[in-house]
Design brief:
Shape: elongated
Radius of gyration: 29 Å
Structural class: alpha+beta
Helix content: 10-25%
Strand order of the largest sheet: 10-13-16-20-21-22-23-24
Strand content: 15-25%
Number of helices: 15
Length: about 675
């Protein structure tokens, strides 16, 4: 057996950076890599096992005998061995001799590919050499302002959206899934697909949230290059790909990261910090530099090697708080006497700075369920450094409100409007996720009160409100057509429901809503500022009606009116910003969506002050409905009137008509703009 001529030492850059917590591409060094050394083909194996007495590589190639291929310690805690003759797909593990002389068999933390459960060995795999075809997507994405772009996300689980053979539980592989998925996503108008974790995991029932392979797409659906094909095909079709990623905890499976070398290695050694007992999982040791390098490298790996457009970081709240899901006496304070996990905070800041520093057009999305401040503000400003956060408060309030019998919604009106007290404090995503349709919580359609018809009407009203509320959108698969049963990862969605009118009509409504959202900059271009939103009717709790405006960067507006009660309201009056005709462009009560067909057509504004505006309109509000109206452009003042107004502001001298004709039209000043009823003074963009 021939070894490389010179083993690496502690001064080698990858090792040095790894130990400093700054190796953001540790997967290039650790794991199994096919190489040619001294003219001999094989693979070099490297692993970090700081408490091990000895480490050996075992596999089919040596009949799993530990003494055949013993690794060498090249520096403190790092072991290496080149084995000739190793081929792609060879199965291996590390046999570690612990400090107590016990032999334990571990899969490779940096493996690119694994066996399919219930087997759990690592596989040698060459991830280089895939011919990507998404250059156009990559170049266009790099120019995109993700904060001020439309984002309508379809959250899905790869194995249960559809199945190749449902009777035998056979899923599509990644490449086949892309071919099935792309026409649907494009037709439905979604901008992105978000996959529940595909990082390798042992237990189907964890849905991927208990990870054993942080660098391996699960082999349930094929090889790593199959997954590259999935991302590539979606990108070529103009669809973004977001992955769920789980740095908060990991399971106790014996072959995984748990007690990797016989002692706490990846997990926090402090029993009051290192375990989530309720989940049966371990918490990473965020203060360990080598663990920092491991996790940041994993995040970077999916962006670098698989071209993914963003990571949704799971369970951030459990990372931030030392007392998360712990009773008194089960946790201890930090060095400052607080309950914040200071190491985890520093890790998240470092993670987001690394990813968004290199790829500012990518997305780092926090699933954070508390009121932790500055989640989406830069680390340099004291924030956590994410660029998006799930709005769990909005989700909880709105699902609670929508579940309420309409007779009692008047007393809960604040749940609809409360989100606007903080709507612009972070860059929010509005999530209706898988978590809300499992474990006895009911499907979304079954949360809705009323009879069969009213359930659909309620849901259409909610979806219309959600699409118009500031923030990006996320909807879990099946909710777009009203799946009645809870999601079950063992079965495909109930696509046969589309043979029923109401379900097909709901799907058509969501499709039209998605396309209208994407085509209407007022709904996404100024998502995180009061400049893009204005209340008209926030306080009609008695009738459960709200009305508001959305405005794009050029000042073009959309009027949105929601009636959350099953009562037809005729002659409902409200102030509007501009004179002219208001054209109804989407109505959730339209017959084509399964509604009763109460529509407005075009409504002309009438003179008369209301809600701070100089004109108003009179509408017919269908029962349980959301209605969108196109706001007419503001009328430009005639030259004569504009000049007279400008001159009058300077000195009260009467102008002649002849002089007025010679003068150029005066631009609207900040002063005159501030006097326009119902519009903020600071909005200087022309309408």
């Amino acid at each position: 057996m021939k070894q490389r001529k010179q083993a690496p030492n502690s001064s080698d850059l990858p090792v040095y950076l790894f130990k400093q917590g700054n190796n953001q591409e540790a997967y290039r060094y650790f794991g199994a890599h096919l190489e040619v050394q001294d003219g001999v083909s094989g693979a070099v194996f490297r692993v970090w096992a700081p408490h091990a007495k000895a480490v050996a590589v075992v596999g089919d190639f040596n009949s799993w005998v530990p003494g055949e291929h013993t690794m060498h310690k090249v520096t403190d805690g790092i072991w290496e061995l080149f084995i000739p003759g190793i081929k792609e797909y060879d199965i291996y593990k590390y046999c570690i001799t612990t400090a107590s002389d016990e032999l334990i068999y571990k899969s490779d933390p940096y493996a690119f590919h694994t066996e399919t459960r219930p087997s759990n060995g690592s596989k040698v795999y060459d991830i280089e050499g895939y011919a990507w075809g998404d250059d156009h997507w990559t170049k266009e994405s790099a120019k995109r302002d993700v904060i001020n772009s439309p984002m309508s996300i379809y959250e899905m689980q790869a194995g249960s959206w559809k199945m190749k053979d449902a009777e035998n539980g056979t899923p599509y592989n990644y490449a086949e899934l892309a071919d099935e998925l792309i026409p649907y996503i494009k037709d439905m108008g979604y901008t992105h697909v978000e996959l529940l974790p595909i990082t390798e995991y042992p237990f189907d029932g964890s849905w991927g949230y208990q990870v054993t392979g942080y660098f391996a797409p699960t082999s349930r659906y094929g090889t790593p290059k199959d997954f590259m094909t999935f991302v590539d095909k979606l990108h070529q079709a103009g669809i973004g790909v977001i992955l769920d990623w789980v740095p908060a905890h990991f399971p106790k499976d014996g072959y995984g990261l748990y007690m990797f070398d016989g002692a706490p290695c990846y997990e926090d050694p402090n029993p009051r910090r290192g375990e989530h007992k309720e989940w049966g999982t371990m918490v990473f040791n965020y203060g360990m530099k080598e663990v920092e390098s491991f996790l940041i490298s994993s995040a970077m790996f999916w962006v670098d090697k698989y071209h993914v457009d963003g990571l949704r970081v799971d369970a951030v709240a459990s990372m931030l708080y030392l007392d998360y899901n712990r009773k008194d006496g089960e946790w201890e304070q930090n060095c400052k006497g607080g309950k914040e996990n200071l190491e985890a905070i520093a890790f998240l800041q470092k993670l987001n700075t690394a990813i968004l520093g290199k790829y500012p057009h990518k997305m780092m999305i926090a699933e954070e369920s508390t009121a932790w401040p500055l989640v989406t503000k830069p680390a340099a400003d004291g924030g956590l450094g994410f660029n998006f956060k799930w709005n769990m408060g909005w989700m909880n309030d709105m699902l609670s409100y929508m579940k309420t019998d309409p007779l009692f919604r008047a007393g809960n009106h604040g749940k609809v409007t409360f989100s606007f007290f903080y709507a612009f404090s972070e860059n929010f995503v509005l999530p209706i996720s898988h978590d809300e349709v499992v474990h006895g919580k009911c499907s979304l359609i079954n949360k809705m009160p009323g009879d069969y018809e009213q359930k659909f009407a309620n849901l259409r009203t909610f979806y219309g409100y959600m699409a118009a509320h500031p923030g990006k959108k996320l909807l879990f698969m099946g909710q777009e057509f009203g799946q009645f049963i809870e999601w079950d990862e063992k079965k495909p969605l109930d696509w046969m429901l589309l043979s029923y009118d109401k379900h097909r009509q709901l799907q058509d409504y969501v499709k039209d809503l998605n396309h209208l959202y994407r085509d209407t900059p007022a709904l996404w271009q100024v998502d995180y500022s009061w400049e893009g939103f204005q209340w008209i009717v926030p306080d009609d709790s008695k009738q459960s009606v709200i009305a508001f405006l959305r405005r794009d960067a050029a000042g073009k507006m959309l009027l949105v009116v929601c009636n959350f009660n099953p009562v037809l309201r005729q002659g409902y009056q409200m102030g509007v910003p501009n004179p002219g005709s208001y054209k109804e462009i989407l109505n959730s009560d339209d017959k084509k969506y399964g509604g009763s067909g109460v529509t407005n057509g075009t409504v002309k504004a009438e003179k008369g002050e209301m809600h701070g505006f100089e004109q108003h309109i009179s509408l017919t509000l269908p029962p349980l409905s959301t209605v969108y109206f196109q706001v007419p452009a503001a009328r430009k003042p005639r030259a004569k009137k504009a000049v007279e107004a400008a001159d009058a502001a300077a000195k009260p001298v009467k102008k002649t008509a002849a002089k007025a004709k010679k003068a150029a039209p005066a631009a609207e000043t900040a002063v005159t703009a501030s006097k326009r009823r119902g519009r903020p003074a600071k909005a200087k963009t022309p309408v």
